[in-house]
Amino acid sequence: MDKFQSHQGFASTFKENKLTLGFLFPLESYSGDFPKMDVEEQITLVKMVEDLGFASLFVRDTPLYDPNFGDAGMMHDPFMLLSYITAYTTKIALGTSSIVTTLRHPLHTAKSAATLDRMSQQRFLFGTATGDRPIEFPAFKVEYDDRVELYQESIAVMRQAWKEPFPNIQTSRVGMTEGDLVPKPGLADIPILGTGFSGQTVEWLAEHTDGWMFYAQEANRQEELINRWRNAAGRFKPFVQPLVLDLAENPYTAPNPVPIKVGFRSGHKFLIDYLHALQEIGVNHVMFGLKYGSRPAEEVIQEIGEYVLPHFPTINQ
């Protein structure tokens, strides 16, 4: 049995041939670059998402605000926000989509991830990435062209630091000959999800990560990518994608993709059919983004929980 089947977050979110549902922070719609992100309102919605039985909550990592990017992303530090949310939740998986490992020292990142996994009682799903905002690399004095190698280094360092007591680690950023990294994760490892290609081959990602997050795209292209991923992995490793959604009040509203990037506007009847189609091509988890929604997030979460979630229940709930 895969070791992560005893990891609460992984086991409740991912199962072969099954699709589960979650949400991306912020749990609100907004125009412009900045969400309101009222913490009290977000916690109320977090509790609602968990009580309805959704599988996950994911938060983005946007180290710096780039006014040319068109979206401030997640303003709060992802590790701190998810640690805060652990105090208000007991079973929902908490994920990052994704930590920019190239801009963080891998030992600091390993310690933050291990702490969060411990605090959440093994509910942490560790999405990782190279980063895609060009202004961030010179700000952190990291060479953009080094991001591919730094991503590989980060994963190798973290895995070794989580697993081995008093490890000897020698890389471009780490010269560890004494001391130990504590706490260790309960399983001496944490489920790492790659994001996009991160400059890697599918084969490298399949060997070194435990799941793959990829952007929403046309179904035939997504199915082809999933098949490549499955063949490279050689065993079940989950495939995850976001879906930006504006849920119409009329459940029979036909889909309209304009002007929503990587998503659409529709009623929940079409949404159910669409998600069944994603499940058929091998998608294992969908994270809803609500930025472009025209209705209050509370209404949307309630409606999806009542009418859509029963078709795609969280594993073992």
Lay out the secondary structure.
Blueprint: H1 8-13, E1 20-24, H2 39-52, E2 56-59, H3 78-86, E3 93-100, H4 106-119, E4 124-129, H5 136-139, H6 147-163, E5 169-170, E6 175-176, E7 192-195, H7 202-208, E8 211-213, H8 219-233, E9 239-247, E10 263-266, H9 268-281, E11 285-289, H10 297-308
Parallel strand pairs: 1-2, 1-11, 2-3, 3-4, 4-7, 7-8, 8-9, 9-10, 9-11
Antiparallel strand pairs: 5-6
The main sheet comes to:
8 strands, parallel, barrel
Count of discrete domains:
1
- Strand line-up in the sheet with most strands: 1-2-3-4-7-8-9-11
Using the CA coordinates, give the radius of gyration: 19 Å
Name given to the CATH architecture: Alpha-Beta Barrel
| SSE succession | HEHEHEHEHHEEEHEHEEHEH
Q: What fraction of residues sit in β-strands?
A: 15-25%
Indicate the CATH class: Alpha Beta
Structural class: alpha/beta
Briefly note the CATH topology name: TIM Barrel
DSSP summary, beta strand count: 11
CATH evolutionary superfamily:
Luciferase-like domain
Note the total helix count: 10
Whole-number mean pLDDT: 95
How much helix is in the residues? Answer: 25-40%
